[in-house]
Design goal:
By secondary structure, the protein is mainly β. About 10% of the residues lie in helices and about 55% in strands. A hairpin with a 5-residue loop joins strand 19 and strand 20.
């Protein structure tokens, strides 16, 4: 009741502010309604009163003209940015450094002058790196343009699984220790087209940020990193885009639906079935191992936005995806693999000069399916394995902007989830869980010289299938940043995180989204304690950061049958997991140069990660973590439309359980060790050089954008996985991305 009264009083106090609207209030209203960012010098008179027409209706340009009329401020639109300058040429204008705290979804940014002409540069906040859609699409990929995960994989502190996949290992954590979210809602099955991209279309993304430390209060239930994707607000002008690349055909549209409603719609579908059959008929030697291949791959996203008032809005969105692959193997066996996601969201926002409120309700479903029909000694064997996770959540937060540089955030998150992992032959075992979180975040900023942030979270988790009752855990984050000069700053972060959902990692390719299991009687929460310190120097066209981290992990999960994840062993997964500790430490380096026509970025990570104290693995002795790569280098250079990307990752040790598997060969029985033991096979160094060229042109009112390029120009053999060849009775490596031309053609009108 006391908390409710506090909220009601805060809303009541905000009423006088709404009555005396300022130009800055109008900027907030326009930014939220039209989905644009304002770039301006705080010295401009944005605090002056505004007494013009209502900004709740009309087009963007009309509202901007009305807002800044006779204000002494001139506006200029540059794509999604509105650049404000003094109307008089002799008026002093000074562009300050970016705000130390980049709160998600707040579009009132003061950016450096270099960012105004080209928005590829990465913005840095406490423990977080952030970028826009333009920087994401620049990256080369098998689909002709990048996505948010490809961008995150190019940053320091991040290593990938097998070459070409979307898996990420951040600062020594497992792939399943990362959180991927869309507008704050977790995306549990984000991998698409066997890891070539994600289920989130680039057409709907406004920005992406990767947090590796100094996490915000609303971040929880993970221990490594948070890749936050924010969707753009629907435009008040009708826009349509149609695109085609190597593996996907897509269409998106957005625009107004009357005075108060607007919409955003995106549909993608993969013609992979026809592409495979075309290659099979023309170049059968490339795909001779499979027959009757069929794929159903696609996704759809829809969003409707209602402006419920001058300072409030209501969003409803839906994301659905499907990946389904069926084929016959040379021995006449039939395989079917499928993954699907369904995510629904309803969000209400209210904002004023000093208060921002947000309330979100969401429903989230993720499922995987495996079926196998295999002939063995004239007997047909059937395997049916399914797994699913359904989660329903209610979250809210309120932010108070206080005097003298202080601010206070308070929030909660209630989640009810149903887990059904490892279902075999029609059985439907499931477990219900409850996870409730409350958090408080305080911030202080002193005239861009010093900033500090402190977060406290309290969790209550209950596995309702257990007789042990619930458990309480407390997390905390502390961050600080000191700007010694206009160009040099020091950053420190410390975090303690707890995770209650766990991913059993699949085959040795970095997939970890096949099956998600909850904390329970035999599974303890995963925890991480991390510290980070770093220096950042920014000059006119150059930005350099260097830092180090140390991380201690406990309760890490290790699945013994990872090499054969799709098997009946999953039905008894709780009996086949081992738990232990992990340690990671290293150094991270990031360099950026931003010129008029030339942009370059270099990210390098030197790190070491181990696993130890696993009672049933390697006799409790330390061993390498999965995809523990000592050296990771990602370099990128772009001159006008030409883009060159170089990836170097040192080889990693593959680990597996000390188990043997019976292989039935004609006339004899043969026993093989499949990744038996730990540190038993050293994968070679990953080397990949990608080239791309981007250009565009106009035909009337239609804009054409073309990306062409080549992935793996040198045709370097980067192993995707190992497999046992029964013909030669030997282990062989399989590469997923040979020399691969790619393209993306997009039209917008």
């Amino acid at each position: 009741m006391r908390k409710l009264l506090t909220v009601i009083m805060a809303l009541a106090l905000s009423i006088p502010v709404l009555a005396q609207m300022t130009i800055k209030d109008g900027m907030v209203q326009i930014a939220d309604r039209h989905g644009v960012n304002f770039v301006y010098d705080p010295a401009l008179p944005v605090g002056s009163p505004y007494k013009g027409k209502s900004l709740a209706k009309g087009k963007l340009e009309e509202n901007l003209d009305a807002l800044f009329k006779d204000s002494g401020i001139r506006w200029e639109r540059r794509k999604q940015f509105i650049v404000l300058t003094a109307a008089k040429p002799d008026a002093p204008v000074k562009i300050e450094q970016p705000a130390i705290f980049d709160e998600p979804n707040v579009r009132m940014d003061t950016l450096q002058a270099a960012v105004m002409t080209d928005f590829r540069r990465i913005e840095m906040g406490l423990g977080r790196l952030q970028t826009s859609l333009n920087a994401i699409r620049v990256l080369s990929s098998p689909l002709g343009e990048g996505d948010a995960v490809r961008w995150a994989q190019s940053l320091p502190g991040v290593t990938t699984g097998a070459d070409g996949t979307t898996s990420m290992y951040v600062r020594g954590g497992n792939a399943g220790n990362n959180l991927f979210s869309l507008d704050g809602v977790p995306v549990y099955g984000y991998s698409h087209i066997l890891g070539l991209t994600t289920i989130v279309p680039s057409d709907i993304v406004e920005s992406a940020s990767l947090a590796k430390g100094g996490f915000d209060g609303g971040d929880s239930n993970f221990t490594a990193a948070h890749l936050r994707m924010v969707t753009k607000e629907p435009s008040d002008v009708q826009r349509t885009s149609v695109a085609l690349n190597n593996f996907l055909a897509s269409a998106s549209t957005e625009g107004p639906l009357g005075q108060k409603l607007s919409y955003l719609l995106s549909i993608r579908y993969s013609p992979l079935t026809w592409e495979y059959r075309a290659v099979q008929s023309s170049l059968p030697e490339l795909v001779s191992g499979l027959s009757n291949f069929s794929a159903n791959v696609g996704d759809v996203y829809a969003k409707i936005r209602m402006q419920t008032g001058a300072h409030s809005s209501l969003d409803a969105s839906f994301l659905g995806s499907l990946d389904s692959y069926g084929f016959n193997t040379p021995d006449a066996s039939y395989e079917l693999m499928a993954w699907n996601n369904i995510i629904g969201l309803l969000r209400f926002r209210h904002y004023s000069e000093n208060i921002r409120m947000e309330l979100t309700a969401s429903a989230n479903g993720f499922g995987s399916r495996q079926e196998q029909e295999k002939w063995y000694r004239y007997t047909k064997n059937n395997l049916s394995l399914q797994s699913r996770l359904n989660e329903y959540a209610l979250a809210g937060n309120i932010r108070h902007t206080l005097p003298r540089g202080f601010s206070l955030n308070e929030g909660f998150n209630l989640r009810w989830a149903q887990f059904a992992p490892g279902q075999v032959s029609g059985e439907d075992p499931h477990t219900n869980t409850l996870l409730s979180t409350v958090w408080v975040q305080g911030e202080y900023t002193s005239k861009n010289k010093f900033a500090a942030k402190a977060v406290v979270r309290c969790h209550y988790f209950n596995n309702l299938a257990s007789d042990n009752g619930g458990r309480f855990d407390i997390e905390g984050n502390i961050s600080a940043k000191v700007n010694f000069t206009e160009w040099l700053s020091l950053e420190l972060t410390a975090d303690r995180m707890v995770q209650y959902y766990h991913s059993l990692e699949g085959m040795p390719v970095g997939w970890s989204l096949d099956m998600i299991v909850p904390t329970g009687p035999k599974v303890v929460p995963e925890t991480a304690l991390q510290g980070n310190v770093g220096l950042t120097a920014k000059f006119d066209n150059v930005s350099v950061s260097f830092g180090g981290f140390y991380k201690a992990m406990d309760g890490l999960i290790f699945y013994k049958y990872a090499p054969s994840l799709f098997s009946g062993a999953l039905a008894t997964w709780e009996d086949n997991v081992d738990f232990g500790k992990g340690t990671a430490y290293g150094a991270e380096f990031l360099f950026e140069y931003q010129g008029k026509d030339f942009y370059s970025r270099l990210a390098y990570t030197l790190s070491k990660t181990d696993r130890h104290n696993f009672k049933e693995t390697n006799n409790g002795l330390p061993f390498h973590a999965r995809f523990d790569r000592s050296h990771v280098l990602n370099a990128m250079a772009q001159w006008k439309g030409i883009c060159v990307t170089l990836i170097l990752q040192s080889g990693n040790w593959e680990n597996g359980a000390a188990e043997t598997f019976q292989l039935h060969l004609p006339g004899k029985e043969w026993t093989a060790k499949y990744y038996s033991g730990v540190n038993n096979y050293h994968m070679p160094t990953v080397i990949r050089l990608d080239l791309g060229y981007q250009f565009g042109f106009m035909t009337g009112s239609v804009e054409h954008k073309v990306n062409i390029g080549v992935c793996n120009v040198t045709n370097h053999f980067n192993p995707f996985m190992l497999y046992f060849d029964t013909g030669s009775e030997s282990w062989k490596e399989l590469a997923l991305l040979p020399f691969l031309p790619n393209f993306s053609y997009r039209i917008e009108f």
